[in-house]
UniProtKB/TrEMBL annotation:
Keywords: Membrane, Transmembrane, Transmembrane helix
Protein name: Uncharacterized protein
Species the sequence originates in: Chromobacterium violaceum
Membrane-traversing stretches: 15-37, 49-69
Length: 84
């Protein structure tokens, strides 16, 4: 959650815009996803298979996104080694 704040040259104004955009997109997706889930079930005649695959794929983006994020700070061990 603090990735935006840790970026070089980040100001409070830029951080506010970044977080506002993040929360807007998150809530938009949280609103649209159940509708799409229901539409997929209806299109398949009541079969939940494709809709469940959609929900699983959507949920897995959280894991993939967290694995792809880079750490902006140096690990504590490296900082300690450089300071000694």
């Amino acid at each position: 959650m603090t990735l935006a704040q840790e970026q070089p040259g980040m100001t409070p104004d830029k951080a506010a815009v970044t977080f506002s955009l993040f929360w807007f997109l998150s809530y938009l997706l949280a609103t649209v996803a159940p509708y799409l889930f229901g539409k997929l079930v209806d299109l398949r005649g009541g079969d939940y298979g494709l809709a469940m695959a959609f929900a699983t794929l959507l949920s897995s983006t959280f894991l993939l996104g967290s694995l792809l994020m880079r750490e902006t700070r140096e690990p504590a061990a490296r900082q300690a080694a450089q300071g000694a």
